[in-house]
Amino acid sequence: MAYRYLTDRLIEKINLYISRYPVREQAIIPSLHEILYEYRDIPQEAVEELADYLNIPISHIEGIISFYDMFRHKKHGAKNHVRICRNLPCHLGKYKNLLELFIKLTGAEVGGVSPDKLWYIELVECIGSCSIAPAFLINDDLYDGSKIKSETDLKEILEKYI
After folding, report:
1. What is the residue extent of each domain of the chain?
2. Tens of pLDDT, residues 71-80
3. Do the beta carbons of residue 10 and residue 35 sit within 8 Å?
4. What 3-state DSSP class applies to 142?
5. Residue 34 CB-density burial (10 A; 0-12 exposed, 13-18 middle, 19+ buried)
6. In sequence order, what are the residues at sequence separation of 6 or more whose Cβ sits closer than 8 angstroms to the Cβ of residue 115?
7. How far apart are alpha carbons 24 and 155 in whole angstroms?
8. What pLDDT does residue 75 have?
9. Could you tell me the fold of the domain covering 80-159?
């Protein structure tokens, strides 16, 4: 069967994941990552095609997408995606101070795109980096928020993405 969203390259990657795991369902998360890298979001049609290809219910994939913050159906429309962790270690690490700096320097609000369309800011529950709390991601690059001591520190990082 020919797929529109599951390109030959994606199918090759998915087959690699299927071969690595004893249960096909274990290939879902890495496959969703590949789809996300390809399209910068996860089109509904790609979910339907993945479910068909893996022979699993669409609802199972949708459950995974809705559970994990890194997966999303809609494009946010910005060049860069900032995810700031707000879970307990990052809360104790004063993520709110970091968030305020991001808002001030980018002009984007939480859940919104900056006027220049360069930044989208999102608060997430966990990015799995408690040892560097408050942790944040810009696109797929992980940063130690505890090293941000001033506006200048954050500006230096942001300039890499402009």
Report:
1. 8-67, 80-159
2. 776 667 789 9
3. yes
4. strand
5. buried
6. 107
7. 44
8. 67
9. Glutaredoxin (3.40.30)
Tokens 């095609």 map to which residue?
Answer: 49
In sequence order, the β-bridge partners of residue 120 are 81, 113
pTM: 0.68
Using DSSP, state whether 31 is helix, strand or coil: helix
Number of Cβ atoms within 10 Å of the Cβ of 128: 9
Q: Give CA angle at 133 (128, 136), nearest 5°.
A: 70
As a whole-number percent, the residues of the chain with pLDDT over 90 amount to 76
- Could you give the angle at the alpha carbon of 64 between the alpha carbons of 9 and 103, nearest 5°? 90
> Residue 162, SS3?
coil
Judged by DSSP in three states, 84 sits in strand
CB contact at 8 A, 148 and 155: no
Sign of the C-alpha dihedral computed for residues 42, 45, 49 and 54 taken in this order = positive
Find the Cα–Cα–Cα–Cα dihedral 82, 83, 88, 90, rounded to 10°. -30
Amino acid, single-letter form, for residue 145: G
